[in-house]
Specification:
- The protein is mainly α.
- Helix content is about 70%, strand content about 0%.
- Helix 4 crosses helix 5 and helix 9 runs parallel beside helix 11.
């Protein structure tokens, strides 16, 4: 209970302190009855994880909160929901490249970097966006629809990191492009491979990850 409460209190602090252990430590100062001092480093480790694992906990908590915020459109379309999700990035945009790189880095050992956390992130955004807009797809169409939305959102988000002023225009173009792909690809496996290769290329060209 206390862990979840402190994690929620740490989320607004990301705007000023980034996805850091310091943000987690300062969360206790914002309790209804504030703690007299920040959490000690051992306390942060005990509650949220050792080393960078605590930062990963904060990043995952922030991403989950942003997915909840994105569904705030009064009469949502997929386009509006995804635009809301991009808007949630804006206050912490300068911290996101490092956050995404950290999620893709192994907790121990050497690279290669793992693309799975990034793919899971955009897949969750796509699933929530489709659910919020009442998508009624079933069977293979269910997977294709979410894969198309995930590909569009992933491309737009990575574009936002380097060119935030044109992120929403890019989102519109990406959605139009993936809708055409969604209509033309009939095999889920083939479309999944398309999304995987596209995401890998986007990540490599963006410069977000080394």
């Amino acid at each position: 209970m206390l862990r979840n409460q402190l994690l929620q209190l740490a989320l607004p602090l990301v705007r000023t302190h980034g996805f850091t252990r310091e943000a987690l430590a300062l969360s206790v100062l914002h309790l209804p009855t504030p703690h007299p001092q920040p959490l000690s480093d051992p306390a942060v480790s005990s509650l949220f994880g050792q080393g960078d694992d605590a930062r990963r906990t904060l990043i995952e908590g922030w991403l989950e909160n942003a997915r909840e915020q994105m569904k705030a459109a009064p009469a949502p379309s997929v386009r509006e929901v995804l635009a809301n999700r991009l808007k949630a990035n804006e206050p912490v945009l300068r911290y996101l490249p490092e956050a995404f790189a950290l999620l893709a880095s192994p907790s121990s050992g050497l690279p290669p970097l793992d693309p799975i956390p990034g793919l899971k992130h955009v897949a969750k955004v796509a699933d929530e966006a489709c659910f919020a807009t009442g998508d009624a797809s079933v069977g293979p169409a269910w997977f294709r629809r979410r894969a198309a939305v995930a590909a569009a959102y992933g491309a737009a988000e990575l574009h936002q990191l380097t060119s935030p002023n044109t992120a929403y225009q890019f989102l519109n173009e990406a959605l139009n492009a993936t809708q055409k792909v969604d209509a033309s690809v009939s095999e889920v496996g083939l479309f999944g491979e398309y999304v995987w290769r596209s995401w890998a290329g986007i990540v490599k060209s963006s410069g977000v990850l080394p």
